[in-house]
Amino acid sequence: MLTEPNRTTVQISNHLSKLTVNPTRGGAIDKLVLNGRTIIQPMEGLGYESSLLFPFPNRLAEGKFSFQGQSFELPQNDDGRPNALHGLVHDKAFEVTASSESSVTLVYNYDGSLPYFPFPYSLQVTYTLEATSLEMNVTAKNTGNQMMPWGFGWHPYFLVEKVDECALQLPKVNKIHADDMLLPNGKITEENTYNTATQIKETEFDTCFKLSEKQGLNHTHLYYPDGGLLDIWQEDLFPFIQVYTPADRKTIAIEPMTCGVNAFNSGDELKFLDSGNDWSMRFGLTYNGVE
Predict the structure, then answer these.
(1) Contact 22, 11 (CB under 8 A)
(2) 3-class DSSP state for residue 139?
(3) Rg for the chain (alpha carbons), in Å?
(4) Rounded to whole angstroms, what are the CA distances from 246 to 40, 123, 180, 243?
(5) Is 134:127 a contact under the CB 8 Å cutoff?
(6) What are the φ/ψ torsions at residue 277 (nearest 5 degrees)?
(7) Cβ neighbourhood burial of 70 (10 Å; 0-12, 13-18, 19+)
């Protein structure tokens, strides 16, 4: 069922699952319930809640990058650190272009008018809601006349109430170590702690992991204290996972990313689109409740 309770949100529902999307807030999710469990809801004090991160996720050192002989400098917006953070679409108004009982499609068209990113593009996202799952399909298209660099990520905060009592299981990954500016410092180590479901306890995350073995679909598992399981899956076009625990310990961010932190400078899995070309990718969530 599709409803529009006000001008700023769109809702779809499927049995005990409900999705509320906010086109005016970068096409992000306002609230998600899967099989009766609230997975995502508005929380005070958090930023970029469920935002689509494009044309780059995470951090860009000093907001600067060079491409094809030109230098660019984006505004710094990283809470006092000299970085650009999380791309350019999180606060943009998307247009709802299609909807049905189980899905909604939104599009944002950028004309390339910002001098620090003069690359026009179209970004489309389709949310498809099933009884126990949500799938997201994203297509980025270069609508300009020159090649453009890009990366994409998603920034959900999953409601857990007490993250210390949850358990986490990662796919096979390496840990990307960071400096004081939360940028990669060149050190990479194998991460084995979360090969199996391991209680998070007091661990603080603001950590990027890179898949060491890519599968067609790669799964991160979040186990709730009552036995519920949230499966966060991503295609191998997303070889990175950022895990972040906010200070209040009531949520955890598990973020699929197509490229590494500071990728516009490091080139770590950075993607490129020729004029007129597009790239599609998918990721999603499945919730298995308590038996």
Answers:
(1) no
(2) strand
(3) 18
(4) 14, 28, 17, 10
(5) yes
(6) -90, 160
(7) exposed
Tokens of 93: 């108004």
Give 23's Cβ-side CA count (13 Å radius). 21
Residue 99 CB neighbour total at 10 angstroms: 17
186-225 pLDDT tens trace? 999 999 999 999 999 999 999 999 999 988 999 999 999 9
Total Cβ atoms within 10 A of residue 80: 6
Give the closest residue to 234 by CA, choosing from 191, 286, 269, 177.
Answer: 286
208: which strand partners? 176, 242
pLDDT digits (tens, 9 = 90+) for 216-247: 999 999 999 999 999 999 999 999 999 999 99
Query: Residue 23 has what DSSP assignment?
Result: G
Contacts with 155 (C-beta within 8 Å, 6 or more apart), sequence order:
48, 49, 50, 51, 53, 57, 86, 253, 255
pTM of the full predicted structure? 0.95
Give the phi and the psi of residue 217 in degrees, each rounded to 5. -125, 135
